[in-house]
Amino acid sequence: MSRYIATRAIRGANALVTEAETMLSQALAEKGPDLPVSFPNTAYYLPVIFGMTGREIETLGQLPDALAHARELLHPVPADQHWTPYLGETLDGGMATLIAAEVIEAVRYVYGLQPELMPGFELAGGTSFTSPDMNGDGEAGSNGHLNGAIDDIQLRSWGIQLVDGRMPGFAAIVGCAKSNEAAVQIVRELQRRNILTFLSGNVNGRSIIDQLVEEGVELGYDTYTVPFGTDTISAIYALGFATRSALTFGGMKGGQAKEILHYNKDRVFAFVLALGEVDDLKYAAAAGAINFGFPVIADTVIPQILPTGITTYEHVVSMPWNEIEGADDLERSERLVQKCIEVRGVKVQVADVPVPVPYGSAFEGEVVRKADMRIEMGGKGSRCFEYLRMAKLEDVTDGQIEIVGPDFSEVPEQGSMDMGIVVEVAGRQMEADFEPVLERQIHYFVNGASGIQHIGQRDITWIRVSQKASDVGFDLESFGKILHARLHSDFGAIVDKVAVTIYTDPEQVDQRLDEARAAYDFRNKRLEDLTDTAVDEFYSCTLCQSFAPNHVCIVSPERLGLCGAYNWLDCKASFNINPTGPNQPIKLGRVSDVDTGYWEGTNDYAKVGSHGVVEEVAMYSIMENPMTACGCFECIVMLIPESNGVMVVSREDTSMTPAGMTFSTLAGIAGGGIQTPGVMGVGKYYLASPKFISADGGFKRIVWMSSVLKDTMAEEFKVVAEREGDLELIDRIADERSVGSVEELVAWLEEHEHPALTMDPIF
Amino acid sequence: MSIEIPVDKWPGTVNTVTLGATEADGGTRAKVVTIGGEQSLPFMHFETEMPHSPVIALEMTPSRTDDWSQILLDAWGDVVEDPARWAAAIEAAGADVIVVTFGLTDPAGDPITPDYAVSTVKAVLEASGLPLVVLGPGQADVDNELIVPVADSTKGERLVLGLCEDGNYRTIVASAMANDHLVVGRTPMDVNLAKQLNILMTDMGLPLDRIVMDPTTGGLGYGIEYGYSVMERLRLAALQGDAMTQLPMLVTPGYEAWRTKEAKVGEGVPETWGDWADRGVHWETLTAVSLVEAGADVVVLRHPESLKRVREAIDELMTAAPA
Amino acid sequence: MALSGIQIYKMLPQTNCKECGFPTCLAFSMKLAAKQVELDDCPYVTEESKEQLAESSAPPIRLVTLAGPDRETAAGNEVVLFRHEKKFFNRPGVFVRVVDTEDTAAITEKVAAASAYTVDYVGIDLNLDGIAVEGASGDPAAFAAAVGAAREATGLPFMLVSDDPAVMEAGWKAVEGEKPLLMGANSSNWEAMVDLAKQAEAPLGVVGETLEELAELTQKIQEAGVEDMVLQPAPTAMGASLAMQTQIRRLALKNFRPLGYPTVAFASDSGDPAKEATLAAHAICKYAGFVVVDSFAPEFVYPILVLRENIYTDPQKPIQVLPAVYEINDPKPSDPVLVTTNFSITYFSVANEVEGSGLPAWLVVTDAEGMSVLTAWAAGKFDAEVIAKAVKEFGVGDKVEKKVIVLPGHTAVLSGELEEELPGWDVKVGPREAVDLPGYLKTVLA
User: Fold this and answer.
1) Chain C residues with beta carbon closer than 8 angstroms to that of A548
2) Contact call for residues A680 and A627 (beta carbons, < 8 A)
3) Contact at CB, A363 and C9, closer than 8 angstroms
4) Portion of chain A with pLDDT greater than 70, in percent
């Protein structure tokens, strides 16, 4: 905690509590203790005082007690030589400020000074008017004054939207923007994101409310932009709103201060935007907001408080206006709002994919034929690649789409051109390991556009754009728009910002392609280095429990899911995107047998995940406690006792195996979530893993294998053969072309000197 | 010879949930209904006492009976024209709970409006003292549009609001939280999806004693075995101690049975199907009784005769063997 | 602790003689470990191994078969308490009861009707399994006459119900050479009943009020030389019978041999078809091996048989409907063609929604080995080639003139390929969920 901020906040708090005391004694003297006090149309008394202290204030006479509590929260201003942390004292001061501010506004309501009068002003939409007398013309209405406190009806309506996520959060703006233009742009940026905005405060007598009114911006409930008042004190209504949200939607009761504050930190995505110079009172009020977990972003130079704790991320962030990058105030406003959203972790939703062609999964299967084609990228005539990489938050401008090189208007019809799609993604929860997971999605995202066909991935991408799509305006930028929208909507949990650059300039494509290829290589290498001993958690996968209720896959870096579709990285990303979903981390805990593959964590999970059916699971053995299977396995591994080894049957292989059973008969034994030693369903890439039944002797135990596996996995098996030190190894393995029975198998193995014959007995 | 009877001792207990609130508790219901609390599989009285009997709800679909079987319409008569009279008839028929399901449109094809939903629910509350379940048509935006004002205008009644589904639970849960109501979450016949939705709903801060789950079922002949097994599995998981499966279960055998061809259609069907009206009631009754055996805490029916039969079965099941 | 297949394998001859019906000793041992076969099927197993394997060799619930001249029905061999754990193996036989106090013409008529009853459910013929003849008259001659009258009208297996050995004897002699269930022995008549069962070589029903009574009886009866038994827990009220049926199943699965037999439930004594139906449903869900009903009316029997079919479906082998083109709401050549898979639930949801919408359509159901659309697609069993093949095989092109074919939304990715496979067809992508089909038909295709 900055001593500077602590000093100023505590000083501000002291001053405001004193001011409140003065106002209150005067009111008590003039009006007497029995006069009712309340904010209009609320069942929550003075909400902050009620929520934080449980006091149900109904009369002036009850206020001194509340103020006395505020006074107790005040601490002395830190001495110059003191360097202890001041966080507690400052937060207490903030709380005292909020109580004092609420007392002041309550007294002002008594005197008819709230809502604040502003002649000629008209609120857009309904309002929490105090009395019909407010308006000279006698209409119950919205003329001539600002909004003041928010009533319960509006609270309910907005509260539901905040809780159900339609409204991502709210902004409390305090002060005055650098220019009218900037004020308007800031509000527009917030409105565009459906963020509720509260306005209050001033700098040297000039308020953002004045600025917006001068520019003709409509303010009120209808525009989601509510003018509270032109002083800082009126910002208290924002916290009253937040407190009541917790009381209404969190089921909390008055006085449950800790619960209410936690509720707001965890569930109400609000932040304070301090525009212009920050005075003592603003510091004090900001300290109050931090209690609620609402960070403060200032457009002036103030000391930052970056370590997180009370708020989710930073507490106080300074983003001096003239240091913000941007051509003009408009761009600077945009960046400022973007920063606010990042700091509070507000998730922005992109509803539609803004492209000129119909978009949806129904178009995923479309084929664009040569004759209907406007242009193609990749394929025979040109190069095309796609590369998604993680970048730092500050280095990515969300929504930026840049085209480097010419568009395709100059390319003749049915021609082709080079293209590279480089996507930069930033997010607080993003990890480099998720890059390939997200990159694979580009295929589906692009295919969703009607008239666009996408095939392949990485540097073998091949895209066709139909004549029809091109005619209605589908261009290079459209690719960027699709990726921006879909990455936000599908991966919002890990993606905060997305920028896309499309390269068509051949030289640039060359250069970027080299970078991309280096990254592909790096990722391949990373997968090789990612071993079971290099991580401290595996992942569960319960996707298949709908038909195999007691089956659970345990996915490790060296053993992918038996369906072949989920490896460890996929599971990790899936967990981050959907923390309550089918992939949960399994902390390994104490290792009990690293060779057979027993950990405390995996065994515990096996019990839970299988609902008690499986007691223990060996990650690396088919002979004892093998992993169970649902029915989705790519291959079945089965013991052939006579051969001292195992056979591997592929799902695609319908022929008879040496076990005397076909794949489909075997599937009945292997599946169903029941542990059957000697039989196991696996993903085919697991066969090449160094951990493939390593407890039982590993790959060298394979005596028979469907030929289709030998063909499709030839590259991988070559590596395995080298690893095992026997380049002929694959040729020693029988398949359905040469061997149909166990007798034939044994003869074949002897003839080919298969290593399994001389290995230790498998059981 | 003495035989040691195997007794299962489970660590988990199903949550106890009370539907409806009397005046003393902030509502207007003449009676409330409490479900759940099981510590054993259904009706294993020799293990633990079953604290609350499964209950029976009858369903009404105000202004939307066009897809109801003629058998049902004949059984109810013209009360289906008037939600208040229908509700009173349901209470008179002996139901424990009333389920009000709104459709998308009225018979004229006009959308059901929020005002209509609110006034209908109020009329039903006036006409009957039973606890209420209020369900939208199952389309996210319309559900929200109808259920939120109903929730707002009936604060404190502890209505059960729905349907909360994977893509659409936040708004209904929020409005239930704000107005002291309950919710029912529906997931498509899958244990893990049910758990996940329960986690998501409780994550929003709604206490577990205000949620019931509808794991969805199929009608007899139309996938009942899936619903049946999912319910048995959910209940087993609950008893094993998995908190996110310890919710009482509400299922809708009435809806499922009466949309099958067997119950709905009387003409042009094989002779081997027998008498239409009897068949329909059997279809609903057998669907419901099987689901009660699988652990249902609330079965929602449509025909008053089925209610009688299922009631008799439940009463018998609730009676333990003489010691 | 149950032995694994590998442990059992070690005790087998390891000759792969195939005489057990399985290709290898290992395959047989795995089946044995799953309690799906009996050790006796192995002709060469040593006595020593037999002893060691005794515990894990016999199915915990004895398989009991009843046989009539035309048909057999069996109960037992169950291995789980809940169908999702594996499956329920032998559908409980549903027996229709006649009483010997009725006149023989009425008996013949009822039995003939019950025997002839058959109803189609998703391409499966559902039937009743047997006739229970009850000796209420106490007169052996009347009982024999009733049994004889029933036998004239059917070839189904019988269950002979009487606790009077003299009556029973007259009854089984009327169908000598068959395997009826002699129902049944109790603590006072068991010795005479055992003699009858041994003479008749027929299974014996055993009635008891309590588990203890049943267990004592079965042990005595077994010692006296009768192996095949069926238990009848006497209490019929649902709460009490559920408790007893559950306890019998649990004890049997724990290898408590005296209760390791299938059970029979008499729904027939309630005297009210409504009550009888719920009792029958109860018995089917919870563990009965045979169910006796008194009523016989199609609207009563049909739902009971369907419930039995549903509960006894293998949870991992879903019910399939016949691949074909189904006509919904009398479609005309101008109506659209919809495509889905032959997983019964998938078919039902699609067919129900379309039917409910009142709009006509042709529904092509492809052979996807009983998988749902998404699963089948992922497994490569529902692709453009398969769909095109089905369309051609069923001659759909000849039935329609407006060639519009609608794919399930989840398989939009197939649209391009399907266009190639089915030239001249307009391939459209429908909604992902069946529930959105009526809206789609009304708006997009209208």
Assistant:
1) 316
2) yes
3) no
4) 95
Residue type, C339: V
Chain B within 8 Å of A271 (Cβ-Cβ)?
no
Radius of gyration of chain C (CA): 27
The closest CB to that of A677, out of C5, C420, C432, belongs to C5
CA A361 to chain centre: 23
ipTM rounded to 2 decimals: 0.96
In chain B, the domains with their CATH numbers are: 17-314 (3.20.20.20)
At A132 the pLDDT is 38
Which chains does C contact via 3+ CB–CB distances below 8 A? A, B
Strand order in the sheet with A553-555: A553-555, A537-541, A585-587
Tally of domains within chain C:
3
* Phi, psi angle pair for A369, to nearest 5°: -80, 155
Chain A residue whose CA is closest to B168: A164
Chains meeting A at 3+ CB pairs closer than 8 A? B, C
Q: Nearest by CB to A676, from C5, C86, C418: name it.
A: C5
Say which CATH class A361-505 falls into: alpha beta
CA geometry: angle at A500 spanning A499 and A501, to 5°? 130
Do residues B249 and B212 make contact, with C-beta atoms less than 8 angstroms apart? yes
* Domain co-membership, C372 together with C357: yes
Contacts of C420 in chain A (CB under 8 A): 367
Supply the CATH number for residue C123's domain: 3.20.20.20
Q: What residues of B are in contact with residue A159 (Cβ under 8 Å)?
A: 174, 178
Mind listing the pLDDT tens digit for each residue in C216-255? 999 999 999 999 999 999 988 999 999 999 999 999 998 8
**A163–chain C Cβ distance below 8 A for any pair:** no
Mean pLDDT of chain A: 89
Check: CB of residue B235 under 8 Å from CB of residue B14. Answer: yes
More confident residue, A172 or A432: A172
Q: Could you tell me if B285 lies within 8 Å of chain C, comparing CB atoms? A: yes
- Give the residue-averaged pLDDT of A80-88: 64
Instruction: Check whether residue C301 and residue C348 sit in a common domain.
Output: no
Residue C290 lies in a domain: yes
Question: What residues of chain C have any CB closer than 8 angstroms to a CB in chain A?
Answer: 4-6, 9-10, 14, 16, 18, 22-27, 30, 33-34, 84-86, 315-316, 379, 407, 409, 411-420, 429, 432
Given this model, what pLDDT does residue C252 score? 95
- Whether C125 is in a domain gets the answer yes
CATH of region A117-344, choose from 3.40.640.10, 1.20.120.1770, 3.65.10.10, 3.40.50.2030:
3.40.50.2030
Q: Could you tell me which CATH number the domain at A3-110 has?
A: 1.10.8.190
Nearest to A251 among B203, B205, B236 (CB): B205
- Residue A85 predicted with pLDDT over 70: no
pLDDT at B186 over 70: yes
Closest Cα of chain A to C404: distance in Å?
16
Q: Which two tokens stand for residue B49?
A: 């006492």
Interface touch C348/B222, C-beta < 8 Å: yes
Beta strands in A105-260 (DSSP E): 117-122, 143-145, 170-175, 196-200, 225-229
Longest dimension (CA), chain B: 71
Does the residue C316 lie in any domain? no
Predicted confidence (pLDDT) at residue A737 exceeds the cutoff of 70: yes
Is the domain A533-758 a CATH 3.50.50.60 member? no
As to burial, measured by CB atoms within 10 angstroms (0-12 exposed, 13-18 middle, 19+ buried), residue B133 is buried
Boundaries of domain holding C291? 64-311
Q: Give the H/E segment covering residue A389.
A: strand A384-390
Which residue does chain C place closest to B138, by CA atoms? C435
Q: In terms of DSSP bridges, do strands A645-650 and A702-705 run parallel, antiparallel, or are they unpaired?
A: parallel
Residue C318 inside a domain? The answer is no
User: C110 with C227, same domain?
Assistant: yes
Whether residues C412 and A549 touch (CB distance < 8 A) is answered with no
